Amino acid sequence: MSRRLPDLMIEPVVRLALAEDLGRAGDVTAAACIPEDARMKAAFVARKPGVLAGVDAVRLAILALDPEARIDLHLQDGAAFETGAVLAVAEADARAFLSAERTALNMVGRLSGVATLTRAYVQAVQGTGARIADTRKTTPGLRALEKHAVACGGGTNHRFGLDDAILIKDNHVAVCGGVAQAVRRARAYAPHLMKVEVEVDGLDQLDQVLALIDEGLAPDVVMLDNFGLDDLRTAVTRVAGRLVLEASGGVDLTTVRAIAETGVDVISVGALTHSAPVLDIGLDAH
Hints:
Blueprint lengths: L6 H16 L5 H6 L5 E8 L3 E2 L3 H11 L4 E4 L6 E2 L4 E8 H31 L6 E3 L9 H10 L13 E3 L1 H7 L2 H11 L6 E5 L2 H8 L10 E5 L3 H11 L4 E5 L7 H5 L5 E3 L2 H4 L6 E5 L1
Parallel strand pairs: 6-11, 7-8, 8-9, 9-10, 10-11
Antiparallel strand pairs: 1-5, 1-12, 2-4, 3-5
């Protein structure tokens, strides 16, 4: 599936990265070696198979330094590709192109790595009904782009920040004096469109949450934190579809299928963004 983010969301990140790379004096290597009127044509080529994310960052990085550049995007974000695939071809002022090269490759490699790892998790749970979700364990300043990359890989976005949903974690529970107390306070505070999720670390806490159903104060989602497989299955049976269940903790590609088969609705995976390897994409000059 092709996915796009508005340029308005991508461009500030790209410009900040370019400014960091250009430093105080600009690209002195390009200035020293490349004639002023030289042109350059090159292709962004996949060295490994994967799922594309961040191709518009390539376009915007080049255009930021050469507004007259010609860029042909062969694939759009969300597309799967094989080794050797040409992702984009660009022709631009050679100095500008060489100065934008590293920023463009850093962005598309990083984001495609996130999308590719997400696709592996999604494929691992295929047929179970469980959804793979990201977390807030993102690179500072890149959250919107990394969460976009998760969506490109077929994953589901968890909350984007502290302001769009209430997520009661163990430290909130400790300060409030208990799971039920924390959920009651959250329900009293939350407007009608805001979801409430609570993390529980054992079946005893889950039972306290379930007791709130009869009061009409139950959360929308319960996060089962570091539950073993047997406890996950027990939790699914006790909840019986009345609440959304999210499994979290101890999730990797070797364990995610078994977790999904317990019947949970969502599996959140911090590794999608904090541990995704950069996908190898190169620039081949013509």
